[in-house]
Amino acid sequence: MRTQVAIIGAGPAGLFLAHLLRAAGIDCVVIERRDRAYVEQRVRAGIVEQITVDLMRRLGITERLDRFGLVHDGTQLGIAGELFRIDFLKLTGSTVTVYGQQEVMHDLFEAAAERGMEIVWNADEVELHELAGTQPYVTWRKDGAEQRLDCALVAGCDGFHGVSRASIPTSVLQVFERVYPFGWLGILADVPPCDEELIYANHARGFALASMRSPTRSRYYVQVPLGDTVEEWSDARFWDELCERLGPDAAARVTTGPSFEKSIAPLRSFVGEPMRWGRLFLAGDAAHIVPPTGAKGMNLAVSDVIMLSEAMIEFFLEGSEAGIDGYSQRALARVWKGERFSWWLTSITHRFPDMDAFARRIQIAELDYLRGSEAAQRTLAENYVGLPLE
User: Same structural domain for residues 30 and 114?
Assistant: First the structure.
């Protein structure tokens, strides 16, 4: 097999890149170690920046987004049960859209099937070869037989645990990481949301987030210690804790019900540099992870592949290597701003185990300043709705 770009991973980064390259007439093959159902059903992010909405519109895959996406022009923050609002539209002229990553992946896969794009599912033992040269190739096993794909460029879009980043020599790769001492316990329940907008709550007992996936489906989170297990959290315990942290006004609007999905996700900040080595280019979670507080994960993957697709199109259609040579530096400039915002929002909304009385007072003062300062609110809003590509 031969193609121009081998894309490792069929998550958001890999599929958005595949669609962008196909639209430019560039051949690519996507190689995924799981099946479609597994990738599509993973419960992930729910906030879509305008840059992601614009890309989906450009690719002609917004029919369901336009029908089911919930446009939000603001969000609410809580300090010990008292809520105040950040008006995104007024402060920035932009909005965000609530539309789950599962729905985005469904739209990408359906469009890929309609357009005859090639995705190899259930690829075992994926390995990348000759990345430092000019003729890289990818091997894998499928149905017991070894397969090989020759290509000109390789896009590593296979997530934090994939083979792509691990293929960069340790002498080259720099890793920057912060692991947070808590996780998010999240549930999905078919009950109406307690508010039309997201609520980020800072409470003495810990962080809570009220979110949604639709007018009839709610997504809620509470901060828990890393050692907690799902089995320790009955639905009744979860609802009680959530309502306590949201405060009386929001709690009065919470509709409880049985959860149909419950999981605990650890939080970490992670960046691997550079995002390009030889003919390998990293994008999305293969290169960086952010805590979900800032709603940046999938959106950073999208900005990566917009930049990467432009560089690859320039390489193939114009014969110039300027774009691929500058990709890592260009992408990382936006990645680190996303990392900063996600770290900052996490730091002012969560309770840390080693937080003393002084640190707690500083945290409260930060939120109180945010509540009273339009300039501070504009900074939050600009970052939340998504910074420009450059």
Answer: yes
State whether 338 and 237 are in the same domain. no
Tell me which residue range forms the domain holding 110.
5-49+60-69+97-177+269-347
200 labelled catalytic: yes
Residues 328 and 338 occupy one common structural domain: yes
Of 137, 200, 220, 327, the catalytic one is 200
- Identify the CATH number of the domain in which residue 207 sits: 3.30.9.10
DSSP summary character for residue 130: -
Q: What is the pTM of this model?
A: 0.96
38 among known catalytic residues: no
**Nearest-CA neighbor of 259 among 177, 186, 167?**
186
Q: Is residue 39 part of a domain?
A: yes
Q: With CA atoms as reference, report the closest residue to 113 among 11, 15, 9, 7.
A: 15
Is 220 assigned a catalytic role?
Answer: no
pLDDT digits (tens, 9 = 90+) for 10-65: 999 999 999 999 999 999 999 999 999 999 988 777 899 999 999 999 999 999 99
Give catalytic status of residue 142 as yes or no.
no
The region, left, alpha or beta by phi > 0 then psi within -120 to 50, assigned to residue 116 is left
Looking at the fold, whether 202 and 231 belong to one and the same domain comes out as yes
Marked catalytic residue, from 203, 296, 327, 350: 296
Catalytic annotation present for 296 = yes
Residues 262 and 357 in one domain: yes
State phi, psi for 59 to the nearest 5 degrees: -85, -5
Q: Same domain, yes or no, for 163 and 203? A: no
Q: Do 65 and 156 have their domain in common?
A: yes
pLDDT in tens, 199-215: 999 999 999 999 999 99
Query: Tens of pLDDT along 340-371?
Result: 999 999 999 999 999 999 999 999 999 999 99
- Which of 72, 203, 288, 350 is catalytic? The answer is 72
| DSSP collapsed to 3 states, 160-225 | CCCHHHHCCCCCCCEEEEEEEEEEEEEEEECCCCCCCCCEEEEECCEEEEEEEEECCEEEEEEEEE
Distance CA 378, CA 91 (A): 5
